[in-house]
Design a protein that fits this description.
Chain A is mainly alpha-helical and 275 residues long. Chain A has a single domain, classed as MetI-like fold, CATH 1.10.3720. Chain A is built from 11 helices and no strands. In chain A, helix 2 packs across helix 11 (246-270), helix 4 (66-102) packs antiparallel against helix 5 and helix 8 (167-174) packs across helix 9. Chain A starts with a helix and ends in a 5-residue tail after the last helix. Chain B is built from 14 helices and no strands. In chain B, helix 6 (135-149) packs across helix 9 (190-216) and helix 11 runs antiparallel to helix 13. The radius of gyration of chain B is 24 Å and the shape is flat. The two termini of chain B are 19 Å apart. Classes of the chains: A mainly alpha (275), B mainly alpha (323). Chains A and B meet through helix 6, helix 9 and helix 11 of A and helix 1, helix 6, helix 7, helix 11 and helix 12 of B.
């Protein structure tokens, strides 16, 4: 923990700004019920009010307080995006390590299947699957996690390939360790740095993806607050010169810029580049 | 069959082509199976609980649901290749009529964006790589990183707020029809094309920069520099031929991204394109339209990716002149 903190101190200013941005969003998400002046779906005033002392960012298309919904939206959107990214890593890393350690036909079969899935644009695939299974949060989580795990598979397989030829893995094999033990105790710890950087990247991607789906009306369904959906609900306001839909859109951009600033630095460190 | 030898250009191209064809075939099967995977009976799901057995039976007959799946797949695919895409469930019109015009609109929007984005991104990427770690490079890198992090609709609404609401220069809704002249069409799609351009330029510029830097740090460039050749000569004669392959790859991949990225932008600007139709049909669960437009999107995407692969093989000097 101490070494991690001292490592953070050496981070460039851009990464520090990124950390601040992410931390701020997380605080907003965790303490949403304490900070928010109004409830998530509470109708608090007239439609599309401008910002005032009671309504910090004005009100939305149904007269709900925008600032409160933004805070609750942070909770819903970030929690679901995090869950999806985590799930996609569990699936992707496991399959990637299995492909790399077993090799041969298992590797061939998995890699070719993933190649075909990756040849298909993700958004179109998700739209088609959701049209068949219908939009619900569990369906959303499983569909996006599985689609995203193909990217994780590629990376973790490549990383594990490099580790798999090391002497210590060979030694573990000769000791008679099982496949799962080797993956868990020899490969995973050594594959951590690139995987962590990738986690940030994938989180951004998933977060933007859910926002896009919700914006299209096919993601998280109302009345739950969600940043992409909030842009959609208020989109009509912009032609009247009311900039309410820009707030949730800016919030999405704020978080992804923050994560990307950190990832940029993490990738730099993980690749050992010096310039 | 000498030309099919491993590592020869023709061999690699044939290999990629056949992989692309297989991918397309599997994707079409997957799209078709999507309908089979519908929970419960497709006909009942569409007609609702109150449908009488007679109407369900008539509907099943109309969709040929009484035939075995394999036969239905081949007649669907056969029809697709001949331009007969079936009829929409929502309004009973032939899908080919719905799609043709919209697909043309989508390609129009995407190609306008590409015409602006490609030269801009390549020039900026090369400039950033040449003046690496200067203020210019860092500023460009920060801007493009934020652009990538912005959702497309954020960029779109900022542009609308600025150019349509505040300044009133361009319409916020890109409504075009067949009677409009090219100039009027172009004026209508300025904002959506600009949104797409901004998104894709950021991606393309970053990748071009990385590809060029990769080349510039290789030993033969260092050798050329150490020989004392001037900078322009090194870049144009030594680096450029080798950078061509990765750069072409970057361009084609981003064009593929553009075709898909168009979906969100079309919805924001209510542009009558294929993406808008796809999203509408998904919410209406108009499965035949979803299938057809999904297959068109997938085919375009796969073909552009294939093109990227093949062009980068052809333009790679090491593969063209085998030892």
């Amino acid at each position: 923990m101490i070494t991690l903190l001292s490592h953070l101190r050496t981070a460039p200013w851009s990464a520090k700004i990124g950390m601040g941005m992410v931390l701020l969003t997380l605080i907003a998400a965790v303490f949403a019920p304490l900070i928010a002046p109004f409830g998530e779906t509470e109708i608090a005033g007239d439609v599309w009010l401008f910002s005032s002392s009671t309504h910090f960012l004005g009100t939305d298309s149904l007269g709900r307080d925008m600032f409160s919904r933004l805070l609750y939206g942070a909770r819903n959107t970030i929690a679901i995006a995090f869950l999806i990214t985590f799930l996609s890593f569990v699936v992707g890393v496991t399959l990637g390590f299995v492909a790399a350690t077993i090799g041969g036909w298992a590797d061939q079969l998995l890699s070719r299947m993933i190649d075909i899935l990756m040849a298909f644009p993700t958004l179109i695939f998700a739209l088609m699957v959701l049209s068949v299974v219908g939009t619900s949060i569990p369906a959303l989580i499983i569909v996006i996690a599985l689609l995203d795990s193909t990217r994780v598979f590629r990376l973790s397989r490549a990383v594990a390939m490099d580790i798999e030829v090391m002497e210590y893995v060979e030694a573990a094999r000769l000791r008679g360790e099982k496949l799962w033990w080797i993956m868990r105790h020899e490969i995973l710890p050594n594959a951590m740095p690139p995987l962590v950087a990738e986690f940030g990247l994938r989180f951004c991607f998933v977060f933007l993806f859910i926002a896009a789906l919700s914006f299209l009306g096919l993601g998280i369904q109302p009345p739950a607050a969600d940043w992409g959906g909030m842009v959609r609900e208020n989109a009509g306001a912009i032609t009247f010169g009311i900039f309410t839909p820009l707030w949730p859109a800016a919030a999405i951009a704020f978080l992804t810029v923050g994560v990307n600033l950190i990832v940029d630095w993490a990738l730099h460190v993980a690749s050992g580049l010096k310039d | 069959m000498d030309f099919l030898k491993q590592n020869s250009v023709a061999g690699l191209v044939v290999q990629r082509l056949s992989f692309g064809l297989i991918t397309l075939f599997i994707i079409s099967v997957l799209i078709f199976i999507g309908v089979e995977a519908l929970p419960g009976d497709f006909a009942e799901a569409i007609l609702g609980q109150s449908a009488t057995p007679e109407t369900v039976a008539a509907f099943r007959l109309e969709l040929n649901l009484d035939q075995p799946p394999v036969q239905r797949y081949f007649s669907w695919l056969g029809g697709f290749v001949q331009g007969d895409l079936g009829t929409s469930l929502a309004n009973g019109r032939p899908i080919a009529d719905l799609l043709g015009w919209r697909f043309k609109n989508t390609l129009f929007l995407a190609s306008i964006a590409a015409i602006i984005a490609v030269p801009l991104a390549v020039i900026m990427g090369i400039a950033a790589a040449l003046y690496r770690n200067t203020f210019f490079d860092k500023a460009l890198s920060m801007t493009s990183l934020s652009m990538i992090s912005f959702p497309e609709f954020f960029m779109a609404y900022i542009l609308i707020a600025l150019f349509s609401v505040k300044l009133g220069w361009f319409p916020s809704i890109a409504n075009i029809n067949e009677q409009m002249s090219l100039g009027a069409k172009l004026n209508a799609i300025v904002l959506p094309a600009l949104t797409l351009t901004l998104v894709v330029v950021a991606h393309m510029m970053r990748q071009t920069r990385a590809a060029i830097i990769n080349i510039l740090s290789s030993p033969f460039i260092e050798m050329a520099n150490l020989k004392g050749l001037n900078r322009l000569r090194v870049v144009v004669l030594h680096a450029f031929p080798n950078a061509l392959s990765p750069v072409i790859n970057v361009i084609a991949l981003n064009l593929a991204y553009l075709v898909v990225g168009v979906v969100i932008v079309e919805v924001v600007f209510v542009y009558p394109g294929l993406g808008q139709l796809l999203v509408d049909s998904v919410s209406k669960r108009d499965i035949p339209v979803v299938q057809a437009s999904g297959l068109i999107f997938a085919a375009t995407y796969i073909i552009l990716n294939l093109l990227a692969d093949i062009l980068s093989i052809i333009s790679n000097p090491r593969l063209r002149n085998p030892r």
